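Write out this protein's structure.
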Amino acid sequence: MLLDLERCSVGPPEWDLTSTAVKAFTMAGITTDDYDLFVRAYGHDVTTWAGFETLRDIREFRMTCMAAQVAAENPAWHDEIMLRLACLRGEAGPRPWPWKPVP
């Protein structure tokens, strides 16, 4: 049985690895120690790759768009969207940002 294939893709591994780095450095969803363990086990740190910032920015933008879709149906998410937009614009301080997971 296969479940939750939203992040499954065929392509460069950097796209998949970026999701884990974003979890660590954008949202603090995992600790940096956990990220370091992941990197050692996988054998590559995507954050050292020249294209990382571009993929990170795309991933953060996608996460914001998904939250905006939720907010369109649930006004309780309005403040979260405003926070995420402020973060993406550079108006809310450095990462990690206090983003809430989208239900």
